[in-house]
Every structure is written in structure tokens, then in C-alpha cells.
Amino acid sequence: MNQHDFELTDASIANKVSERIAIPLDMNVWNFLARDVSAEATRAKELLTNLVVDGKVFCPLTFSVITELFKQNYESALRTATLMDQLSLNVCFALDKEIYNKEVRSFLQRFVDGKEIRLSKNEIYVPVSAFLGSFGNLQFPAEFPGAEEQRQEFTQNVSKRLASLKLTDIVNMLKESLPLSLFQQQSPPEYTEVWKERWEYAKGNKAKMREVEQDNYVRQVLIPELQNESLKLPSEAIQRFKDYIKSLPQNSPALASTKILEHMPALKNAIQIMTITGYDPTRKATMNDFFDIQMMLTPLAYADAFVSTDKWIRHLLTTSRSIFETEGAVCISSLSELITFLEDCKSDEQGDL
What's the Cα-to-Cα distance from 2 to each of 144, 152, 336, rounded to whole Å? Predict the structure, then answer.
């Protein structure tokens, strides 16, 4: 079996979104706008549409939003997907694990040339078809016709076609299967037991709970990524990285990892969010909890505005906003607030003329 790897990319993404304000919306807001549920929803949709056409904003999608879309019947999903295509420019955030890897690589770059650059929009965003992951492969049986070069060309053409798919294309492909039972019947992640165990271990001490959560992410994500990516550095950079590690507090692994995590906003947000969600040991996790958590991780770190009408998210951002890495992102929790924000964007645009 012969295998050819590919990555779903779109070189035009950087040019499409580089000067635009990124405004991810949660599924509630997408549904409100697509269905024109109120005068406010219609006004917000009108403003967003005009600002997207004028090159001022865009609404990148997320894994959780696209997944929730497939829980709708075909007619509803197509209506919402049509609006998503218009406002997202066929762009979504890369998967969290891909963002974490890119944050680690960006951090390690400082040991190569002394520069540490915040992730570019071309790294943060991927085509909508990559919402489940940017990387894949085609496996060719031995009897598949053609030379190696032709198989590679075939793979590249397939990846280009996949990268060009719009959300409405995917919805139409799934027409006979929507709503997808896979997503309707999913059991929630085992958050409930994890929250309870962590609470009992820390005896309700919130600082201790965060330490436990951070240690979990450091062992499962940060250390493996650092080990893997640091091996790809030039020998001189590897030595500088080792010297840096030695300069960190050797008697306090938690403090050492905290210093490194300061350079990784999305990964740091994941730790903060997963810690706070466990403050109530009696809370029963649902799939909505999973989608809400996924919605916040990367968008909070890299978007310019974050729009969610969800009560739990609103409470979280109201009570704990200061602990998240947001780079000044505006948190919006109602359609009226969204309209005000968009009207300000429109006024700024007219002022630039």
C-alpha cells in the first residue's frame, strides 16, 4: 500500500482576512440570524453582511459550530450554512490541537533567530473542510495505475478540491443523512467524573485545582509537543532551548511550565477554562458543555470579538474574564450589543473614507 500525505490549505486565506475584524458567533447567534427571529436579528445580519462585503469583518467558524449544524434537518442546515458561507468567507479556526502545536513552534522560533512571532491569521485559520483536521492521506493499492509522480499529483488535486468545498457543499452531500444521528446520540465527555475527582483531590482549593489541570495539560500536550518540535531545531537552537529550560525554576515544575505557557494563549485558555468548569462538583456534564468549551478555547485567544448568548459562557466571561488570554477581544453576549459593536465598525469605516 502506497501512501501520500496532504494538508488542507488555502493560500488565499491570509489575503482574504488579514485586514478584517474576526467575529466568531456561537450556534445560537447563527440560528437567530439565519431565521430572522427578531428585528434585532435581521438588523445584525444586515450589518454583518454589508461589513463582510465591504471587507471590514468576517465570522470564522469553529469545530463546535459546524458539528452542531449537522444536528439540524437538511432544510434548516442549508439555510444556516448559506449564511455561514457568506459571512465566514469559507474560513474556520484550525483544530485546537493544531493551534497548540503551532504555538509551541512559534515559541521555539525564539531559540533560532531570537524572534517570537504571534501566530499569523494564515496559521490560525483553515478552509471549512478542515474543521475535523487539516491533515490526511490517500493510500494507493499496488495495482493502482500510474507512476509515483502521477499519484502525488492526484493527491494534490484531491486536497485542492477538498479545500475548496463550502459548507453548503458539505450539507448537500449529507442531505439524505441529516440530522446526523452520530451527533444527536453522542454521550457527553466524562467531564463529570473528572470534575468530581479533581475537586475531591484538591479538597475544593481552586489554586490546587488549577495546578492539577495545568499538570495534566503539561504532561499530555506541552511536554510531548516541545520534545517533538525541539528535535527539528538546528543544533545551536537546541542548545539555547536546553539552556533556557535550565534557567527555569528547577525546584518548581509548576512555576517553570507557567512561564512557558505565557507564550501560548490558546493552550493557557484551555487550562483556565477546564479548571473553572470543575468548580462545581455537582454539575452534570452535557454535550452542550463540550460544545461551549470548544467554542471558547482558540477564538478567545485570537479573535477580535467573541459573540455568545449562552448564559453559562456569559457568566464565565463576566466573572473570570481577567484570567483569559484574549488580546483585548470584545466579549458580546446579546444581539443588541452585537448591533452596537457593528455600528461602531461601520462608523469607523466611514471615518476612514
Answer: 9, 10, 55
First to last CA, the chain: 59
Of the CA atoms within 13 Å of residue 261, those in its CB half-sphere come to 25
Q: How many residues does the chain have?
A: 353
Per-residue b/e over 140-169, b at no fewer than 16 CB within 10 Å? beeeeeeeeeebeeebeeebeeebebbbbe
| Residue 322 backbone phi and psi in degrees, to 5 | -65, -20
Query: Can you read off the three cell numbers belonging to residue 187?
Result: 454521550
Q: Which three cell numbers stand for residue 295?
A: 467554542
Residue pLDDT, tens place only, 14-35: 889 999 999 999 999 999 999 9
What is the rounded CA–CA span in Å between residue 137 and residue 272? 34
Rounded to whole angstroms, how far apart are CA atoms 30 and 81? 9
* Grid cell for residue 122: 494564515
Q: In angstroms, rounded to a whole number, what is the distance separating the alpha carbons of residues 326 and 305?
A: 9
pTM for this prediction: 0.92
- Condensed to tens digits (0 to 9), the pLDDT of residues 132-164 reads 999 999 998 888 888 888 989 999 999 999 999
State the Cα angle at 339 between 335 and 343, rounded to 5°.
170
- Rounded distance between C-alpha atoms, residue 117 and residue 89, angstroms: 25
